[in-house]
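Hi C.,

You asked whether I'd gotten around to modeling the 359-residue construct. I have! Everything is below, sequence then structure, no commentary in between.
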Amino acid sequence: MLSVKNHHAAEYFPRFLLNDTTISIDLVTYSYYRVLLFFIAVIIRVRLKIGGLFAKRTEDDNPSNDIVEKIYHREAETYENKHHLTTNFRDTWWRRQSGTDVVSYAQRNGNKKTITLLDIATGIGLSIEEMFKVFHEYDIDVEAHAIDYNQKMIDQARSVVYPRMKANKLLDAKHSVIFERSDARNLVGKKSRGNLITFHHDTFDCVTIMFGIGGIDDPISFFESALRVLKNGGIVSLNDMHRNVYGLDEHWPFFIGKKSAIAFAIMSWELITRPLVLNALWGWRDTTPLFYILPFVTVYDEIKETWYGYKTVNFFLDNEAWWYGIPVVPTARIVVEKVILDEKEARHRQDIIQNAIWN
């Protein structure tokens, strides 16, 4: 949930984020939903266990970066199958959507010849692979850096995905990618820190992060770093999970019903999505509030004596019925553009963030 310290800040966030939702249902319906969710959870666990992909739940709902690092070190070799199975293969198109955001940026900027791209939390490079397929289709030239904090993930990207991209002719003189280890919270530096690569200010046209923000224990630092490495007018494309918006009705299967379906959505998030899909599988946090925090992040460039922030280009919320025909795991995508702010507006945005608390 998101909480704010004053009424003024609350005006900038949607109601469902600020208020706990309580729904009254009869005991029979509640018991039925609990049993149904229990069996769904069992099916998910069995499916992943058979594939050797299930991980024990972390003890902390907001695990540190070190805990997340251990999870991904352990699961780097099963990462690809795990993503496909846990999303019912929808992740392929989510990755391609990030690619279309880059294409849209190029088209808005007069079909800019070569796009410089930074893919954050790239894992083993699956997003880069799918985005490059999109770039070829739309004839967009791209020079990409794909980074991850986990060295084993980068090793897998270099040994598995990179050769596959070459074999499929996704890499050529106009389309290149370098897989490197870096810290998304500290992207800027005159020289690299140990084996963590850093970049100069105003380096990239586009920054993409597909289902990665939940694994960064200080997301605000990443949002600030992204502002610094982006060129003015550059974009950030953020894809991830999003909590159900309970006031928006869904088309539910007959075995859920409609009268109490909102209660089923709430129970699904609390009993399956958050503890099982997010925390147990990925060491993930609830990423929902970050879609609404991102547009208020600012930085001050001391060299240029200029304030920078974000302007929302597009926000897309979807609720595909990709688990057993039940729409209980929504996703969202936001695209923001780096813009110059006057000091008054920058201070105003800082005040909003300082008065917002989320978990």
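If it helps when you're writing up: The chain has one domain: 24-358.

Thanks,
B.
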